[in-house]
């Protein structure tokens, strides 16, 4: 598909984990085209890691992917955190902020992402909270389609719920192709049908990751393994539909040495080049 939008970053990215910081200091500037961090892990950090973050943010494009906003949760939004986040995004010239379309707690924080009921009431509730976040941050945000293992009170399909939130909140989408694959197995739907219903002009960047096969009909989204072939194929399906969109490799544990991670980052680059050449157009524009 010949589409061309302005994206916050370009090329192939990687999640920056503290275990990679020392290795990165010895790498050339083209280790990754952009980096993603969880702001909760870096806000207020000083000393060695604070200095390294400032150095890397001056050398590379950065984006932020939040962990704790609990956009669909019952507790009031943490507006004090949002003010700290706003300062952090500005200080480090962060080019995009995203969060999960889920929730992670009420009075306390749970270290898991819980499913929002797929209902019209939840659409209005979540969309209103997203709009409030955008007002406070004074910028658009992207929400990520998440993996889920139960659908309590479901009245809508996952894709209809996602699209209704995007439309009512007027926000962007962080498209996670691994989550589509995981959910397609766990909830028995077609990945291409799901991709075909995503609005092209909402997608700002893509996540790709590995997972764990708990059983033949149950996949757990772990970000702790290599990306498998069907997920790479789904990424190509996404490029075919949307054009070549900036894509980031997520790896949160069982993290191998940086050269091994770069093999997968470079595979993203090779697929991007393949689809750019197949269309004869450069789809990625730098904002």
Features:
single chain, two-stranded parallel sheet, 9 helices, alpha/beta, 287 residues, TIM Barrel, eight-stranded parallel β-barrel, 39% helix, disordered C terminus, 14 strands
Question: What would you say this structure looks like, in words?
Answer:
The protein is an alpha/beta fold and 287 residues long. The chain has a single domain (5-286), classed as Divalent-metal-dependent TIM barrel enzymes (TIM Barrel), CATH 3.20.20.150. Helices cover 39% and strands 20% of the residues. The chain contains 9 helices and 14 strands. The protein has helices spanning 21-24, 47-59, 79-91, 120-137, 158-169, 177-187, 191-196, 229-242, 258-279, and strands at 5-7, 12-15, 34-37, 62-65, 97-100, 103-105, 109-114, 142-144, 172-176, 203-209, 212-215, 218-220, 247-250, 284-286. The strands form 4 sheets. Strands 2-3-4-5-8-9-10-13 form an 8-stranded parallel barrel. The protein has a two-stranded parallel ribbon with strand order 1-14. Strands 6-7 form a two-stranded antiparallel sheet. Helix 5 links the parallel strand 8 (142-144) and strand 9. Helix 4 (120-137) packs parallel to helix 5. It is globular and about 50 Å long.
